[in-house]
Write a structure and sequence with these properties.
Number of helices: 5
Order of helices and strands: HEHEHEEEEEHH
Strand order of the largest sheet: 1-2-5-4-3
Shape: globular
Low-confidence stretches: none
Distance between the termini: 35 Å
Structural class: alpha+beta
Mean pLDDT: 78
């Protein structure tokens, strides 16, 4: 199903940013073959994860990563807790943020996902879901109404040239 919806995005050098629910090595490999990129947080228990990256113990501020032959980078970075990342667009490069080093992959991921986080937060303020509905009706109404309304609002504001609400 995903291939049918994403066919027009392949071979266009686009980057797909995913959270740890969708990030897997297999998807990254397929996107890399077709000219796309995948950047996302990674669950430690996924198949095909490099065991030595997952099991490496790090102190705060340390980074460990591996790059495969097909340009898939799996990174582990320790800030307050361990952060696992997968990227076909980035290597293990860092940049200075204030007085500490931060992975470029994490900076790009946070910038791309910030819009989704704001959208989810705004949708939670005014849900169209009623108490009398069954759970599956609530999911459908929320998906159709709440997300659509909030995303439409952001599209209108962005098209007007405003940066913030």
């Amino acid at each position: 199903m995903m291939n049918r919806h994403m066919n027009n995005l392949f071979d266009s050098e686009r980057t797909l940013f995913t959270d740890n629910w969708y990030t897997i090595v297999g998807l990254a490999r397929k996107l890399a073959i077709r000219g796309g990129h995948l950047v996302g947080t990674l669950r430690s228990n996924r198949k095909c994860n490099p065991k030595n990256v997952i099991t490496t113990s790090l102190n705060r501020g340390q980074i460990f990563g591996m790059v495969s032959d097909d340009v898939i980078t799996v990174l582990k970075w320790k800030d307050k807790r361990n952060v696992l990342m997968l990227s076909t667009k980035h290597g293990i490069e860092t940049t200075n943020i204030g007085q500490r080093q931060k992975l470029v992959a994490i900076i790009d991921y946070n910038a791309a996902k910030s819009f989704i986080d704001v959208s989810d937060q705004r949708a939670s303020y005014s849900s169209a879901v009623r108490k009398a509905l069954k759970w599956y009706q609530k999911v459908a109404v929320e998906a159709l109404m709440g997300t659509t309304i909030v995303n439409s609002l952001f599209f209108i504001i962005k098209s007007m040239g405003k940066k913030h609400l």
